[in-house]
Design a protein that fits this description.
With 177 residues, the chain is mainly alpha-helical. It has one domain: nmb1532 protein domain like (Four Helix Bundle (Hemerythrin (Met), subunit A)), CATH 1.20.120. The chain contains six helices and no strands. α2 packs antiparallel against α4, α3 packs antiparallel against α6 and α4 packs antiparallel against α5. It is elongated.
């Protein structure tokens, strides 16, 4: 996981798009940690190191709703606006698909979080770890699509004004203004 506080990325060189991309990298790292944790818990149990990993993973994914709002409330509409005067069907389809994936990730996160909570509480019987693979796979595919399609499109279409507007909204969503 990144050592830079997510909020500080808003004012870094790359601004809001860099922050959104950094969250995707953090999410991918948290997924890898989640899959490693499953094997660690099976072999070593819910020791202190495993419980610390649980807290890091939970912190990452519990903040995903803010990331999703950044995209759904700011980035997607700004892309649609940037395409005004042309037919933004491809952007609309991409935004709709990514929004559906956000809802599915949120649903699957509930199952994963229940497993993590049981590990942290040192439950004598853990729920099935089966949902972990499906969640991690969807996270990986979703992040890859954003990195390969969404963010490059935004970089091509947005000027300083659009990025500043998104930055202000993201700061406000995080209580930074």
């Amino acid at each position: 996981m990144s050592s830079t506080a997510p909020e500080s990325r808003l004012d870094d060189f790359g601004g809001p798009l860099a922050m959104l991309a950094a969250f995707d990298r953090d999410m991918r790292n948290a997924c890898a940690a989640l899959l490693r944790l499953r094997f660690r818990v099976a072999e070593e149990g819910a020791d202190g190191e495993a419980r610390a990993a649980v807290r890091r993973i939970v912190a990452c994914f519990d903040s995903a709703s803010v990331h999703h709002a950044d995209e759904e409330d700011d980035l997607f509409p700004a892309l649609m606006e940037a395409m005004s005067g042309s037919d933004p069907v491809c952007i609309r389809e991409l935004a709709d698909a990514l929004t559906r994936e956000h809802r599915e990730l949120e649903r699957r996160w509930g199952l994963v979080r229940a497993w993590l909570r049981a590990v942290e509480e040192r439950a004598s019987v853990l729920p099935s770890a089966d949902p972990l693979d499906a969640f991690a796979d969807l996270c990986e595919r979703h992040a890859a699509r954003e990195q390969q399609e969404l963010f490059p499109m935004a970089e091509r279409l947005f000027g300083t004004e659009e990025l500043d507007s998104i930055r202000r909204s993201m700061r406000q969503r995080r209580g930074m203004d």
